[in-house]
Design goal:
The protein is of the alpha+beta class and 117 residues long. The protein folds into two domains: 3-42; 48-115, no CATH class. It is built from three helices and five strands, in the order ααβββαββ. Strands 3-2-1-4-5 form a five-stranded antiparallel beta sheet. Helix 1 runs antiparallel to helix 2. The protein is flat, with a radius of gyration of 19 Å. It starts with a helix and ends with a strand.
Length: 117
Amino acid sequence: MPWEVIFFGMIKLIKAFGLIPGAIVAFGVRKLYQKWRQNKAMAGWPVTDGTILSGQVHREGRRRYWAEIAYYYFVGEYRSGTYVRRFRKEEDADAFVRQVKEKRLRSDTTTRIRSSR
């Protein structure tokens, strides 16, 4: 989908809904399109099992927390990576780290990890 079509579609949404609601809808449509393209591009990447090495919660400011998960996987050779997820509450970040720690994961080798339930 070329950017010109998206741009003119956004203009039509702004016209139909008004400036602020139209801009919000246009932003959402753009995000969905980007997510769709990312998933389409990642479809060809190999998927393998990975293992969590460690998980830590970090604090930045008063209400900004992030969980940092270190993991490794094997695709021809051992590789490692980190996954960072942001949270507003420390309890949520701690719960996330507890959930994924020492689990086996499915990794598509692009730093995106999924739990292998």
